[in-house]
Design a protein that fits this description.
Blueprint: H1 6-14, H2 33-40, E1 41-45, E2 49-56, H3 58-66, H4 73-83, E3 86-96, E4 102-104, H5 107-113, E5 114-120, E6 125-128, H6 136-151, E7 161-166, E8 182-188, E9 197-203, E10 212-213, E11 220-221
Length: 237
């Protein structure tokens, strides 16, 4: 690879700009839920431990409900409205036994080990708090969705712990929008054999936007890139 292209490739991979919010958003029904899931999940496995983190923004529920034709439109709207002030963070943590069995940590231990914050485009960190006043409607909807979340992960999902975080500030403004540059940072404290560490989910989420193409080479580009990593051409924002 020519050395002159390396800075462009690195820039295209890591630079997030406010202009991403002006890109064309997909209709919710057109969003691929599997792609959205892949962008928002992080896992680390070693010979001694396993950790899995899934950041679930409110848009995920809208996408999931849009695929379910059995739910009337009015009910879908009521469910998404109930979840609007919240963000879900789902976590699995386990030790690996000498015979390779997974020994899952319980919900209380996992909850104590998790810290969540949002880092905005300016690098400012906003701590996110567990929601203490979840509305009955929202709690009911999350309860309905838990089996779906767990079902997508097979056996791992059986020990998935689901935590509800406030996604609004004191003025009622959203903290962590997946349409805007930033990142949700999930910090895991050491637990059992797992050393913990930071798991970042980068925003904006590419799955929520209509794919852009490089005018020079025609390849699809991630929503956050400013330059095509293949030919270095600047991308329209």
């Amino acid at each position: 690879m020519p050395r002159s292209l390396l800075p462009l490739i690195l820039a295209s991979l890591i630079v997030f700009t406010a202009a991403a919010s002006a890109a064309e958003r997909k209709e919710i029904a057109a969003v691929d839920s599997n792609e959205l899931g892949r962008e928002t999940q992080r896992s680390v496995a070693t010979g001694e431990s396993l950790s899995f983190v899934w950041v679930v923004p409110q848009e995920f529920w809208s996408v999931a409900l849009s695929k379910n034709g059995s739910v009337p439109a009015a009910d879908r709207a009521a469910m998404t409205d109930a979840l609007r002030p919240y963000m879900i963070v789902a976590v699995v943590r386990a030790d690996v036994s000498p015979n390779a069995a997974l020994l899952f940590h319980d919900e209380g231990a996992v909850k104590e080990s998790v810290g969540v914050s949002y880092v905005n485009a300016a690098g400012e960190t906003v701590p996110m708090q567990i929601a203490r006043d979840v509305s009955p409607k929202a709690a009911q909807v999350v309860g309905l969705f838990k089996p779906m979340l767990r079902g997508t992960l097979g056996r791992l999902g059986e020990s998935l712990h689901v935590f509800i975080y406030k996604d609004t500030d004191a003025d009622g403004r959203r903290i962590a929008s997946p349409y805007q540059p930033g990142r949700v940072r999930v910090a895991l404290a050491p637990l059992g054999k797992d050393a913990g560490g930071v798991r970042d989910v980068e925003f904006p989420l590419d799955a929520l936007f209509v794919p852009r193409k490089c005018e020079k080479c025609g390849r699809e580009q991630h929503i956050s890139w400013k330059f095509c990593p293949w030919d270095g051409a600047p991308l329209k924002e």
